[in-house]
Specification:
Belongs to the ferrochelatase family. With 343 residues, the protein is of the alpha/beta class. The chain contains 12 helices and 8 strands. The protein has helices spanning 17-28, 38-64, 71-84, 102-111, 128-145, 161-175, 192-197, 223-238, 263-272, 290-293, 295-306, 322-338, and strands at 2-8, 91-95, 116-121, 150-153, 182-188, 245-250, 277-281, 311-314. A 4-stranded parallel β-sheet has the order 2-1-3-4, sandwiched between helices. The chain has a 4-stranded parallel β-sheet with strand order 6-5-7-8, with helices on both faces. Helix 5 links the parallel strand 3 (116-121) and strand 4. The longest helix has 27 residues, at 38-64. 44% of the residues are buried. Bound molecules: ligand L6N33NVT and fe (ii) ion (2 copies). One fe (ii) ion binds next to loops.
Length: 343
């Protein structure tokens, strides 16, 4: 029997340093997130980052936490529930990190007689630190515990025509009534090194401003290209003028060079250039989370207004938007009926 496994990133169990620390430990000890040799990752993560970050992160989580729990988890649960209502197949939800494990979710499907699973990483773009780590983890868990289950992965869907339409409609809806003079597409950042590592040609991705515009097989795994493509596709769908739109990358950790331009620097640059009414869109995330609700909706507004901006709006992610749910249901049902996957 066929079934669906939806996987998002995960959150700590509560917004306290006690619960944030083990969550960050699992997250940052993932070699696809901090991609150093393990001995060095141990020093960087356990010897340095985890000494101070859990307290700082817990404070940030406290600002956005809902009565029902972490926004990312609650929204993912609502989404999964709605998808369930639009398919005959069993649907389970797991998280890459934290206590809602992929193993438990696969067990849930297995207990319902499922032996053929469509794995859906809830990320529109490919990155080794998001999409790839979910796929690798699910394959490891399957091989170790459920050898009779067949796993098929839904590919990164950022340029799927229906998805671009659903995303654009949701953005248009969020922009309604807001008199903006600029729209910033802020994507989660990654270290530049990750782009080079994921380049199958080993020479295409130079991160020089041009490589992402030249056609290449490298784009199947080039997160930077996929983000810029998303901006262009939405811009075309909504007929947005070039001069009113730009892209940037947020949430960097100290140390390595990350993808540029950095979102926080862009807030300052745009305000100084006289763009005073800013809308911010965060299309690397399908559900709102710490990085959108705290870093963009709260901190971002403060940074932009301190730099001279006057009005500011964060446009919500797709979350459990009905059109998004129906599109996901269409994809999983097409796979069930004809083994067809979206492109
Ligand atoms: C080296 C560090 C990190 C990489 C690379 C990275 C890539 C990456 N992350 C997401 C999506 C999310 N990240 C979230 C939180 C978060 N991310 C990092 C670090 C890296 N992410 C940290 C340390 C944290 C935790 C919070 C903090 O201390 O700042 C979240 C939110 C989770 C939540 O509970 O709300 C999401 C979602 C993507 C898509 C990505 C690569 C493209
Ligand atoms: Fe992250
Ligand atoms: Fe590229």
């Amino acid at each position: 029997m066929k079934g669906v496994l939806l996987v998002n990133l995960g959150s700590p169990d509560s917004p306290t340093p006690k619960d944030v620390k083990p969550y960050l430990d699992e997250f940052l000890m993932d070699g696809r997130v901090i991609d150093t040799p393990q001995w060095l990752r141990n020093i960087i993560v356990r010897g340095i980052i985890l000494q101070t970050r859990p307290k700082k992160s817990a404070e940030a989580y406290s600002k956005i936490w809902w009565e029902e729990g972490s926004p990312l988890i609650v929204i993912s649960e609502r989404f999964a529930e709605k998808v369930k209502n639009q398919t005959k197949m069993p649907v389970a939800l797991g998280m890459r990190y934290g206590s809602m494990s992929i193993k438990n979710a696969l067990q849930e499907l297995h207990d319902q007689g499922v032996n053929d699973v469509l794995l859906v990483p809830l990320y529109p773009h490919y990155a080794m630190s998001s999409f790839e780590t979910v796929v690798v983890k699910a394959m490891e868990v399957q091989a170790e515990n459920f050898p009779e289950i067949r796993l098929t992965t839904l590919p990164a869907f950022y340029k799927n025509e229906d998805y671009v339409k659903v995303l654009s409609d949701s953005i248009a809806n969020g922009l309604e009534g807001f008199d903006y003079d600029h729209i910033l597409f802020s994507y989660h950042g990654i270290p530049e090194r990750h782009i080079r590592k994921s380049d199958p040609t080993k020479f295409h991705c130079k991160i020089d401003g041009n490589c992402c515009k030249i056609n290449s097989v490298a784009h199947h795994t080039c997160y930077r290209h996929q983000c810029y493509d998303t901006t262009e596709l939405v811009k075309a769908q909504l007929n947005l003028p070039d001069e009113k739109v730009s892209s940037s990358f947020q949430s960097r950790l100290a140390g390595d060079p990350w993808l540029k331009p950095y979102t926080d620097f862009e807030f300052e640059r745009l305000a100084k250039e006289g763009k005073t009414r800013l809308a911010v869109i965060t299309p690397a995330f399908v559900s709102d989370c710490l990085e959108t609700l705290e870093e963009i909706a709260m901190e971002g507004e403060e940074q932009f207004k301190e730099a001279g901006g006057e009005s500011y709006k964060h446009i919500p992610c797709l979350n459990d938007n009905d059109a998004w749910v129906s599109l996901m249901a269409k994809w999983v049902n097409q796979w069930e009926a004809k083994e067809v996957l979206p492109v």
